[in-house]
Amino acid sequence: MLGKTQWVIPEGFIPAAGPFADDRALRSHEAACILNPNRETAHIQLRIFFSDRDPAGPFQISIEPERTMHLRFDELDDPESIPRETDYASVFESDVPVIVQHTRLDARLGSLSLLSTMAYGEDGK
Amino acid sequence: MLGKTQWVIPEGFIPAAGPFADDRALRSHEAACILNPNRETAHIQLRIFFSDRDPAGPFQISIEPERTMHLRFDELDDPESIPRETDYASVFESDVPVIVQHTRLDARLGSLSLLSTMAYGEDGK
Amino acid sequence: MLGKTQWVIPEGFIPAAGPFADDRALRSHEAACILNPNRETAHIQLRIFFSDRDPAGPFQISIEPERTMHLRFDELDDPESIPRETDYASVFESDVPVIVQHTRLDARLGSLSLLSTMAYGEDGK
Amino acid sequence: MLGKTQWVIPEGFIPAAGPFADDRALRSHEAACILNPNRETAHIQLRIFFSDRDPAGPFQISIEPERTMHLRFDELDDPESIPRETDYASVFESDVPVIVQHTRLDARLGSLSLLSTMAYGEDGK
Prior knowledge:
CATH superfamily of chain A: TM1070-like
Oligomer: homotetramer
Number of strands of chain A: 8
Radius of gyration of chain A: 15 Å
Order of helices and strands of chain A: EEEEEEEE
CATH architecture of chain A: Sandwich
Largest interface: A-B, 27 and 33 residues
Structural class of chain A: mainly beta
């Protein structure tokens, strides 16, 4: 099956929402875009790591077969929310292979700035 | 031969065209830049995955030996078009090894913002 | 354990601080975001390479178990500082596996521009 | 030795120079940032691929031991120059392992926009 079962994004930081705070598409945010290209549902456990406290989670995520999910970190709320303007990192563990890409939109100053990278993938042992 | 036969871009999103909608180079778009560095023509099948419907495609792409193709997602139209402002992901399967890089230009607010990453590559089994 | 023990960022360049020089978050900077997802402290040696002189370092970095560190290159000062507007590259060697992502914020002209990529990882022999 | 001997950047495009055309740092450009972390000089052959003509090169590049080179694509001129506003891709073949990262600065509209990614690396056979 295509993909890997563990993915890591070391660079997490949700900037201040900025002047478009009322617009879901344009407010500052981070996303983990996940593709489940396989024929089984993916059950993913997400843990969030910080610089100065124990990890949060696991957050439980399910992705149907042959579907993509653009997961917004600024909208996580169970078991807790991720504060803005705080350094974090994330680790995804899936029961079937998936592929994860990281994206940030920074709108703090009223123009859009983007970054993106494939996450770091590894197969669990 | 240099490259891999399967490539995945989980983070697909074509922003609204923005104020330069009449300028092909400056309107918001996404591209998959593909290099076929080998001496055989590459025949590629592209499938597009969504969050809430079955995948689209396959789109058929051919790249001559030792040529690059900067494929615009906003210009795909056979068997269908990809709507703007919609989450998607893409999977490329080639009969010979190639290399794929993902790029977006977001011009929604009238300035340019770019993101790019190598896609996730794997050899088919 | 998740991660790799050697990481490389070839593209180092800290732009001029720009008009927000007094604001730590908004002045131009580069960061290496490092996650230590494992249960042992990571001891990392960082060396900085230049185009025209011998490498600087090693800089000594420790990261507690299950913690992330967003290391600012513009704040390194022991054994030396990295000058702005100078090409450099960095190599991280850790005693336990970690994951490293590279990010730059360029604020030279008063708007924000971002780039990011996973660093290149390899296991030491 | 750390690194790989073949590197590919599929997404090449040097935008129009823009309003800062006289400023080397701020005019639109692309760079391949290469680190030679090893104790031998790296001799690299660079070939440039296009969409509609045979490849250019090889361009010959040497990098001293433990040095980095931020190679500007807009300054290549032997055996030929790379035109702006033209799709291309690049392949690096080195006699010793190196690491390559791709960066673009797009200043067409007078603000800065950046993209970067690690290139695709593979060991030659």
